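ugh ok fine here u go
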Amino acid sequence: MPLTDRDRAILDFEAAWRRHAGAKEEAIRADIGVSPARYYQLLGRLIDTTEAQEYDPMLVKRLRRIRDARRQARIARAAGAPR
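structure:
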């Protein structure tokens, strides 16, 4: 399924969000028009798609790497392993 305009807007926003002044949550509401929680749900699903990978491979790789590192840290904390 091809990326929607909203999908592309989310990926573009995530790639450029550091250039926004102010809090990211405010920019998400203003630019994307969804709550931050919904934004992160959509982004999490989106980075697992082939279409997103093709659209912005560097961004998707970076976001997957961050997500995987956070997941591993949570697993390690739950198992009682040192950080």
